[in-house]
Structures are given as structure tokens and as C-alpha cells.
Design brief:
about 280 residues, mainly beta, nine-stranded antiparallel sheet, seven-stranded antiparallel sheet
């Protein structure tokens, strides 16, 4: 905890008022406190403004909203996104040194940016929404209390040279995600948005429980369980970015043993007696 605040240094809350136009870095690779090995920021553009040049590190831009023209290594595309919750993203992924140009063609465009040092070369690629499938997890388990949508843009299976893994989760109101509790050796971060600006949820980080709100970012050190829950009435979205470790790529997670029983569809857990459980 940060002395006198009651807030964990893992939870970055200083942008709850929103992000200014331009590029705002939220956390950076190599910083002294809970370094997860990832640069992460939000880049907000107005119509006609561009992001252009050679990437200094491996970089992934995740489109959050708006319409843009994208060009990487001679490949051009028009990309758009109207809803974080109902539409899969476009993700532009390039190695260090690759040239990219992203021009805003709607009144406002917002990109999330994730970067990491990586000397390995690989082909730049645009992952379009049709390339990123919605995976419904938790169906039929524990009374569907952990039903959620997971979207994976890329990992070690389709980008083995990358230093990063990038995806999204849509956490349904009043339900859980990243559940049952799981962990992995590689560090990770989550960046949150909600269906309502006053929305909130709870994030576990090992034995800590942290209240997360709009525009927060959570740094997750390797080895800690990190299940999430959204408050009833509020849909919760988060980007998740994992940093591979040298010689230890992220290839999935381990469930905490005492909670693995919830993965058995025959074990739905306690139910109240009667039709509603109310008196």
C-alpha cells in the first residue's frame, strides 16, 4: 500500500477524470515500482491527426473508438470501432523499427498502446475484428456466475516472435471473470472501461481486493491470482497484456487448486432452497 492512501501501488488511478488529447503514458517498462515490463498508454486523436514513424519498440495499437486509416509497410486499411462491448477490436502490431501511420478520420479516435523491448524481427500485421473471435467462457459452470467473453488478438501460437500477448475481456454485470482464480509466472496488466462512467468492479491481486473504476490500470506481478468481478448493472471491459519472460513464454495459466472444482459442470455449488431464496 502507498503510505497514507490505502491504495495499492499496483492500481493506477490517476486518470479517472479521463485522458487528454495526445499520448498519455500510464506505466512504462523499467519503472522502479512494480515493473511489469510493458509501456502502456492511451493516445487520443482528432480528425486529421496522425501517429507516424518507426516504432522504437515492439508496439501494439488497440483501437478503442473511432475511425482511422492505417498504413504499415505499404499495407493500407480503413478501420473503425463504435463499441468496446459489442465489437471486437482492430489491433495493429509491429516490430521495433517498422514504420506505421495511423490517421484519425472521425472527429475523435482513441487507441490503447502497448510496447515492449524486443530485438526480434517479425512481419507487421493488422488484426481485424474478423480475425479476433469472441470466446464465451464459463458457460454451464457455477450457475453461470463467471460467464464472460474473451477476445485474443495474438499470443505465442500466432506471434511466436513477439514479447507481448494482447486480448480483451467483456465482464458481464454482476459476474466474475479470470475465474476460477488463476496465475502465471509472466507479469500482466489490465486496463478498465465500464458501460456507465460511474461503473466499478473489484479486482483481486493475491490476497488484496481492489476497487477498480473507469480508466484505471492494474499491474499484475507474476505468480499472483487475479480474478475480477463487476458490480451488478455495470458491464466491465478490460484490455489484458501479458509480457513474455526470457525463456518462459506465456502459454496459459494455472488454476488455484482449491477452486478447480468449479470447472466441473456437475458441481454447480450451493443453491438457496425454494424458487427464489427470498423470505
Amino acid at each position: 500500500m502507498v503510505e497514507g492512501t490505502g491504495v495499492s501501488p499496483a492500481l493506477l488511478t490517476r486518470h479517472r477524470g479521463g485522458f487528454s488529447r495526445g499520448l498519455t503514458w500510464v506505466t512504462e517498462e523499467g519503472e522502479p515500482t512494480l515493473d511489469v515490463g510493458i509501456d502502456f498508454g492511451i493516445h487520443r486523436l482528432r480528425r486529421g491527426e496522425t501517429i507516424e514513424g518507426a516504432a522504437p519498440k515492439e508496439t501494439a495499437w488497440i483501437l478503442l473508438s473511432g475511425r482511422a486509416e492505417v498504413e504499415i509497410e505499404g499495407v493500407r486499411a480503413t478501420v473503425t470501432r463504435a463499441s468496446l462491448f459489442d465489437e471486437a477490436p482492430t489491433v495493429v502490431h509491429v516490430p521495433a523499427g517498422a514504420r506505421a501511420r495511423l490517421e484519425a478520420t472521425s472527429e475523435e479516435v482513441e487507441w490503447a498502446v502497448a510496447r515492449a523491448a524486443n530485438a526480434t524481427s517479425f512481419a507487421p500485421r493488422i488484426f481485424f475484428p474478423q480475425d479476433i473471435q469472441d470466446e464465451l467462457r464459463g458457460r454451464g459452470l457455477v450457475q453461470e456466475a463467471a460467464l464472460r467473453t474473451v477476445r485474443l488478438a495474438f499470443d505465442a501460437t500466432n506471434r511466436p516472435e513477439a514479447a507481448l500477448v494482447v486480448g480483451e475481456v467483456i465482464n458481464l454485470p454482476g459476474r466474475w471473470s479470470s475465474y476460477p482464480p488463476h496465475h502465471h509466472a509472466q507479469p500482466e496488466l489490465y486496463h478498465y472501461r465500464f458501460t456507465h462512467p460511474q461503473g466499478y468492479g473489484h479486482a483481486e491481486l493475491g490476497e488484496q481486493v481492489l476497487k477498480v473504476r473507469q480508466y484505471d490500470t492494474l499491474k499484475i506481478p507474476g505468480g499472483l491470482d487475479h480474478p475480477q468481478a463487476a458490480a451488478p448493472g455495470y458491464g466491465m471491459y478490460y484490455i489484458w497484456v501479458v509480457r513474455h519472460l526470457p525463456g518462459n513464454l506465456y502459454r496459459g495459466f494455472e488454476f488455484t487448486p482449491e477452486h478447480k472444482w468449479v470447472l466441473d459442470p456437475k458441481e454447480q455449488g450451493w443453491r438457496p432452497s425454494g424458487s427464489s431464496g427470498e423470505k
